[in-house]
Design a protein that fits this description.
Helix content: 40-55%
Radius of gyration: 25 Å
Number of helices: 18
Number of domains: 3
Number of strands: 23
Largest sheet: 8 strands, mixed
Shape: globular
Strand order of the largest sheet: 2-1-10-9-11-12-13-14
CATH topology of the largest domain: Rossmann fold
Distance between the termini: 83 Å
């Protein structure tokens, strides 16, 4: 039985079970298995009437919702290839993707999204709103009750990559890819939750058009879970309280913000709370590093009882764990949440690997590592410590890009483009992207990501840090956000003191406008478009090095005069 057959069987056998929820206006809006099935049947009837056939493409453009889930299931059940798109992405970028995969129809969540497509595409395929798609209910008697079991090699979806180093590419995933991955995620969640009679409570705010987020959605539909979908990211904290989850999927940026917010509140509160937090944190860090002192157990017990427990209750009183993916998480942040009694389980993967290659074991977490390869998947290091992956999770190829497929898949191994390390126990860590390596005039290979993350942590007001320096005499930093020159200089002095000479950042520029999806300098999932940033800020980067060179010449002249 594949994952889709499993989902439909569960919906049919447990009609009254609560399966999905949405947060709307400060309240929870639930959907039972029967209600979800009704929406799926309506969407399948619409697709059938529209004349779509297996293998046709259907673009799906909307934020997360119960309706999005129903339409997604309906498209797959009809054997149509679903192309999920990010609702916040610039319309002209979305149009490029759709022109690449030629969908028969486009299904949009609202008129605003549809209008954005029409303004950027003179002759788009038919566009239909969700209201229209779900308007017709054929009833239980109609065909559409369950899918006919698509073959394992059937192309299920085309998910476009973020395009950090070029145009987005359509990643084709098959039924077999997704069925395998859903079984793996289920097994890991079973480890986390252990046997229990009540459903898992899961909160979900990440867009389900992205591979990892989508896999969690499908996994929840194949287990005894109640998945609560966030509908307003500006009210995330309130929605999280409503959902009271056991676990949920995160990106590092959110966990970093939560940690920073907690630390700022503790400092603002001051007094006994700040003192106890500081003593407890110091005791925890010493114990974690193996340098515990005599009174550390006492301080830690007091901090847990008075401060840590209250903080954990505000984050989520029922939390078993936080799951984190998309990018490497700072070790300090992972340790911070562990100190509060909330383990952070990391996963690593790419769209091409059906979202996941490694997953932390809930009972054996090593901060800074993303866990071992999941069962049945092989991983090794190639040239330049590039991570290579082989297994049933590997995609069959990019949509209509045979040359790029051949470059990525060599002798069955997928070349991830990520640099990694693996320890003696098989636990992996991610260093950075091979294509992002900076090679200054000294010839050293420098991964910018760890240094950028360190500098960002030293600058609370900064939003992004990008290092540059290919072929240059030294590294320089571009910093966005509210970061004053003095603070940047202090942060660089602190960072450089820990680095070898060739890694030191010797100049910087504070850029007024943060990089964003809207100005085209971030990908749909928030990653830096480094090549475009360098191109857009070329004159400023040239100025950084020109001014630094002039300053060095002036210093040299002055030194010669004194000599």
């Amino acid at each position: 039985m594949n994952f889709l057959e499993d989902i439909f069987l569960r919906l049919e056998q447990e009609p009254g079970r609560l399966v999905l929820q949405e947060t709307r206006g400060g309240r929870i809006v639930p959907a039972t298995c029967e209600e979800l099935s009704t929406s799926v049947r309506a969407a399948r009837a619409f697709l059938s009437r529209a004349g779509l056939k297996p293998g046709d493409r259907c673009a799906l453009l909307a934020p997360n919702s119960i309706r999005w889930t129903a339409i997604d299931l309906a498209i797959m059940a009809e054997g149509i290839i679903v192309v999920p798109l990010y609702a916040r992405q610039a319309p002209h970028e979305l149009v490029k993707m759709m022109q690449d995969c030629s969908p028969r129809i486009i299904l949009c969540g609202d008129e605003c999204l549809a209008d954005g497509i029409r303004k950027n595409w003179s002759q788009p395929p038919p566009i239909h709103l969700f209201d229209e798609v779900l308007a017709y209910n054929p009833g239980k008697a109609a065909a559409c009750a369950s899918p006919q079991g698509p073959a394992d090699d059937h192309s299920l979806t085309i998910i476009y990559t973020s395009g950090t180093s070029g145009e987005p590419k359509g990643v084709v995933l098959t039924v077999a890819n997704v069925t395998y991955m859903v079984s793996c995620t289920n097994a890991r969640l079973d480890q986390l939750m252990a046997p229990r009679a009540v459903p898992d409570q899961v909160f979900h705010y990440l867009p389900t058009c992205f591979a990892g987020s989508w896999i969690l959605l499908l996994t929840c539909l194949t287990r005894n879970s109640i998945l609560t979908l966030s509908t307003d990211l500006s009210k995330l904290a309130d929605e999280m309280k409503l959902a009271a989850p056991d676990y949920f999927l995160n990106v590092p940026a959110l966990l970093e913000r939560v940690r920073t917010g907690i630390e700022e509140q503790i400092v603002k509160k001051g007094g006994v709370a700040e003192a106890l937090f500081g003593c407890g944190q110091s005791a925890w860090l010493r114990r974690h590093s193996g340098n515990a002192r005599a009174l550390d157990s006492l301080w830690l017990a007091i901090a847990r009882a008075v401060v840590f427990r209250a903080i954990r209750k505000r984050i989520g009183p029922k939390l078993r764990a936080l799951i984190c993916g998309s990018a490497p998480l700072a070790v300090e942040t992972q340790i911070f949440f562990m100190m509060l009694g909330i383990p952070v389980l990391q996963v690593y993967g790419l769209t091409e690997t059906t979202a996941i290659c490694t997953m932390d074991d809930p009972h054996d977490v090593v901060p800074g590592r993303v866990g071992p390869a999941i069962p049945g998947i092989e991983m090794k290091l190639g040239e330049g410590n590039e991570i290579l992956v082989r297994g049933p999770n590997i995609f069959p190829g990019y949509w209509n890009r045979p040359e790029e497929t051949a470059q990525a898949l060599v002798d069955g191994w997928f070349h991830t483009g990520d640099q990694g390390e693996v320890d003696a126990r098989g636990k992996w860590s991610i260093i950075g992207r091979v294509k992002n390596l900076i090679i200054p005039a000294s010839g050293h290979n420098i991964a910018p990501e760890p240094m950028e993350e360190s500098l960002l942590r030293l600058l609370p007001g900064a939003q992004q840090v990008v290092l540059v320096g290919n072929g240059r005499p030294f590294l320089a930093a571009i910093i966005t956000g509210s970061a004053g020159r003095e603070k940047v200089e202090e942060a660089l002095e602190s960072l450089n003191a820990q680095l070898p000479h060739y890694k030191r950042v010797r100049a910087f520029h504070v850029h007024d406008e943060p990089f964003s999806i809207e100005n085209g300098l971030l990908t749909a999932n928030g990653k830096l478009k480094r090549e475009l940033i360098a191109e857009r800020l070329q004159s400023r980067i040239e100025s950084i090095y020109r001014n630094a060179s002039a300053a060095q010449n002036a210093e040299s002249t002055e030194a010669n005069k004194k000599a």
